[in-house]
Amino acid sequence: MKLSRLLIAASAASVLALPASAAEVKKIGLAVPNLQADFFNQIKLGVEKHAKEKGIEVVVVDAKNDTNTQVSQVQDLMTQDIDAFIYIPAGAAAAAVPTRLAREAGIPVINVDRTPEGAPGDTFIAGESVESAYEVCKYIIGKAGGSGKMAIIHGQKGTTPEVDRFTGCKRAIDENQGVELVDQQWSNMWSADEGFTIAQNMLQANPDITIIFGQADGLAMGAAKAVDVANLSDKVIIGGYDGDVSALEYLAKCTGPFIATATQSTQKMGVLAVESALAVAAGEKVEERQTPNAVLTTCENAPEFVKVHP
Amino acid sequence: MVADVKERRGVAGIALPSLRGATGPLIGLIVLCLFLTFATDKFLSVRNFLNVLDQITVLGVMAVGMTMVILIGGIDLAVGSVMALAMMVLGYLNVVAGLPMGIAIPLALFVAALNGLVAGLLITRFNVPAFIATLAMMSITRGLANMITDGQQIIGFPAWFNMMAIVRFGGFLTLTVAVMIVVFIVGLLYQRYRHGGRVLYAIGGNAEVARLAGINVQRATVLVYVVCSFLAGLSGMVLAARLDSVQPSSGVSYELDAIAAVVIGGTSLSGGTGGIGGTIIGVLIIGVLRNGLNLLSVSPFMQQVIIGAVIVLAVTAETYRKRK
Amino acid sequence: MTNRSPILSLRGIQKSYGPIKVLHGVDLDIHPGEVVALLGENGAGKSTLSNIISGTVQPSAGEMTWLGKPYAPANPRAAMDEGVGMIHQELKLLPKLSIAENVFVGRYPMKSGRLDRKTMEDKARAGLQRLGLDVAPDRPVEGLSTGKQQLIEIAKALTLNARLLILDEPTAALGGEETQALFRQIERLKSEGVGIIYISHRLEEIRQITDRIVVMRDGAKVQEFDRGDVPIRTIVEAMVGRSLERMFPALPVPTQEVALEVRGLSSPSKAFRDINFSVRKGEVFGIAGLMGAGRTELVRAITGADPISAGEVLLHGKPVTPRSPIDAIRNGIVLVPEDRKLQGVVLDHSIAENIGYANLGEIARNGWLSTRRIREFAEDYIRKFGVKGRGGQNAGELSGGNQQKVVLAKWLARKPQVVVLDEPTRGIDVGARSSIYDLIMDLARQGVAVIVVSSDLEEVLGVSSRIMVMAQGKQAGILNREDANDVSVMELATI
Q1: Is the pTM above the cut of 0.80?
Q2: For residue C202, how many C-alpha atoms fall within 13 Å in the half-sphere facing its CB?
Q3: Cα–Cα distance between B227 and B114 in angstroms, integer?
Q4: Which of B34, B122, C87, C392 has its CA at a distance of 20 to 30 angstroms from the CA of residue C233?
């Protein structure tokens, strides 16, 4: 009896506390696939920093790369009455269900990095992978003298970035007759330890590889370790992608075989996501596709990115 | 006086065999719900309760099979991978090969059950320890699931399929939740009131005693692994409906979640005690906990710490209670 | 003997668990070089008393003096450091470790910071050989028979260099030869001035080995004999607190109709070879032999628990050679196994469930059953067999004798034609034994063919109308009751 009265009082209070206007954004839900990955963590930091300046609360959920978990978490976000939803799909399959849930709740949906097929959000913010991957591969092939045996360490097979980054790099390879693509392997987690193992196996099978492209900085860093261990540091050139903090610090030293990456403007993506959410909520028109450019980063410009991550 | 105490405990134990050892978890679940009710005004609502039910369907269906395996003193590490394989088979048959769902679903479940048959035969005929046999099956089925589409996801199921997981019939139950509830009830009745269910307790209690008592331990063991894999496949069907897509990377480490739910529910890893009643509570604890922590906006890293702590708490509390 | 000062003195030792008093002020002295038998039925307080001496349990009141100094060990380690060693009735060996490692566990011989495996194995081998056990000390304990494991347990205690040794049922799983070897070691320890507390249900042994007998009943010392060779009847009467009419009930007269016949039975492991015998309806057929003679393996094969490589089993002239326990049970041939705790009952399940497990098919209606129905079914048998416990109670809480009744009850519900009992009274106290014997005779009277395997010679002689003696896997002969006595059986067993 007493309990139920308490509960009624509590729910009444919560009704009073509801935001007066639906257009006003007080609480943003952010669903990320995996905070273990620096790339997503940077986006999260960007969102949180910018939201704090605007006085907006951010609720973050981490799916640990599992789509099912992410759907559950998005349900819980909706229960918390968020006013806007920033959605970075987890797993190889970008599930459409979270977008549908948000649509049902009538709130803005901002997709970052990946977008589910058939259920687009209000805007899609993602780096342009094809062009940037082309830039990285062109640079490392050029450093290698425009010829030699090359290997690619792919990311998780079937994901959009994996496909796009390969398309871009392949273009650079095709432009150089002297480059022969001798080995390609796929990782599951985009992680450094996978990069290490894969590169070691590649060098075992083809000791005369001189160019390696890792589709993520983690993979490239792992490959660099493997090259060091094999005592081939002065013969092999490695390129990466993403511009992780640790990779930028590595590049800034200008000593190892890993010499170039494409630094994604991850923090800027987060800022952009919050801005877009506010704009959509206010009824303004937002671009369907927004592409903060990735910047080719080498030993020369790495130090400035270490200071301030874009 | 002593005899009296023993007798009373005996009566309680015998009247509620499916909840034996699960009274602790049940109290834990109630305390957790009370806490969340006061900690956040979002928790106690029909909508959120139905959300939680939606969220535990996959784990719930899988954990029923795992309970039976653990009850006979076994373990099945392959359920997560078997689930992914069943999903990929479903996607391939329905979307790629164009077979109707009425054929694709039974075939996908059959493939799942087949994995259990292989594991069961490895364990009984070739004396491979259950841990190793299912560890091997975990790797094999994951590889097969990936091979079907070379690691790609499959989308394009008929629209009604996703609706099964979304539309709440009568404003209450989605079809997937209904599937879970049916599995719960059938599992409970089987374990408590069927000849085959009681036999599992005997095997888990002491396989040699059971064998000498004329129980066909080998057949029951194979059957349990088949059922567990079948239910893993069924949970895959539920997940496919929920996600409206299938991908071979689904269900990684789900076997550990299922084992955690079973153990939190009071079933002993050495077999012979516990049951599906406890497991349902274990599944609810995990579901409510994850839901509540999200509602409380607890940071994702802190959530991992809390869930681990709850597992430890549940199991040590139970051990402590037993020792007393 | 008594003029020397005792190694250990107990004065007024009491022990209570909550409101229940299990020891009521026991006094006891153990002198160097004497073997004191501690006798009593299960629950008399022998184990509690020895656990107090060995530091496993702390007394509620009373004092202990060890070599003239106050003695209050906080744990078994402390007692061991003082020089008190104990062999537990339940085997406490680590199955995956080698024999030598088991003998020296916790006190491994070291050489310059490393395990001295050679010394350890040499010492273990020497210790085992003194007990007449010739096995490689580096093989794991797992897979050794219960008897051999018991010898290892004894060897472990003998290498402790203890001043006082407590032996709790050391010969429960031993054959005659091993028992004699153990006794030789006890004599040696005696001459070295070691005091020994000897707990056993085998009263024959007690007469042979002990210097003094202390009888306990209901937590108190009730009688003390200053010599070992007291008539068994006298000891038993002191233990049970009443005079005994007889130890073994009268044998029913068997029919002439042959129920079970075994022809040329052999095992793939060569544990037994070419065994031929038959058992009539209503007959109790004994199987005797030393440890390792193949008795257990033979009866397990007859009941489908172990494989058969050649020969056949016939029931009423029809071949029924079993391939599994299910096969045998279906034909009405059932086994009450040697190791109750590992093969007979599920210790942490209820009595009702234990009885139910062999009868689920019977209890279920169209495959449906409930806990209530299992319990109702079991209650009947619990009453009929006088099991001291209730349906909902865990089997592990029962005494050995009551556990054995549960195993019997589970089978008798199926109205079997052949009942095989392997070591039916091992570890069961004297009072309860006679009720097991009564049950055996009841079975025979109802026309069941009964086979009893026992290492306890007196028992086989007492209950069987014919006895087959086995030696090294072969049948050495079948004796009629009139011709069977300890001498004739031992002659055959040691061929």
Answers
A1: no
A2: 23
A3: 10
A4: C87
